[in-house]
């Protein structure tokens, strides 16, 4: 795209995501090397998630009351400085697990505050007619960063240790702040009214009332949350169990298979940006929903003993088939989720966009561990392949209900607003 603001926005995001990806992989390895404790890794994970959950709503309110660009720059600079302090402490050997835990609380809060403003800013930088293309560009670069960051993280930590990781991530945030500074943006949202408990509750109430009043927005949000409730545990919990414990793929093979999902996401967003951008959101969402559901069912059927027995003579063939299906699901996931994100951005007014997406993200974050707990418990009770097939069918039924019952607004905001 030729839009300078979007180019700066996407590049800044890309650089910071690579730095974050490097640190996200390296820090758990460092904790394990330092303590040898799974409990310590669990505590770090909790200190990453909980502050973000508690800060989510406030970050959305800040994003709707302050200049979003300046909030993003402030959070990038603050995170860069904080991680630079960690790097210095590691350099002079005055660094321990407790300092890391405390710093992570502040980093998690800053991450969420940045996110609340960032997600609200992008639609302001571009005309609605090319919003789908801009989202596909952003998601495509996100996918590349998701591949590069973790890959570099493991290698760099193994070669140079944790201090280099901190220096690199600190620089990535500083570069992100510099690029964001050059985005041309004038905010009309700044509210000088002092934030109080009453105003805090009122601003949350405004979003919830709007959500329940807009039928299409409610249907789309409910569908997205239900999908996350089932799909994320399916791919992050049950599928790893099935591939490693059921089919006996190695950890390395499993890692390669999951990379193909990200490759599919990248290809799907490239296809949208180059070839499918002229299609209506409704058509893209329907294609993505139908084919993702169908492909997921077929892939889950491959785990049936009678099917896996067929591949016993050639485990490589099964590995290749799984890679292809993961890539196809990633591709169709992009043709579904990118239009969904675009329509949500168009449905929600600018003056409550940060609040809406922060609350939406909070509900999604809560739904995922709840789904993981329920399905993890179920996994101990029934065969993994039966659970995979049952889940894929339930997801397909939810998709079918959405296809049959969703109003036009759930697919395309402009249909209503014309």
UniProtKB/TrEMBL annotation:
Gene Ontology cellular-component terms listed = plasma membrane
Which positions carry the signal peptide feature in this UniProt record?
none
Q: Tell me where on the tree of life, at the top rank, the source sits.
A: Bacteria
Q: Which CDD domains match?
A: MFS_MefA_like (cd06173)
Enumerate the UniProt keywords alphabetically: Cell membrane, Membrane, Plasmid, Transmembrane, Transmembrane helix, Transport
Bilayer-crossing regions? none
- GO molecular function, a single term: transmembrane transporter activity
Report the locations given in the UniProt record.
Answer: Cell membrane
Tell me the protein's name.
Enterobactin exporter EntS
Record lineage? Bacteria, Bacillati, Bacillota, Clostridia, Eubacteriales
Which SUPFAM superfamilies does this chain map to? MFS general substrate transporter
Q: Which Pfam families match?
A: MFS_3
| Topological relation to the membrane, as annotated | Multi-pass membrane protein
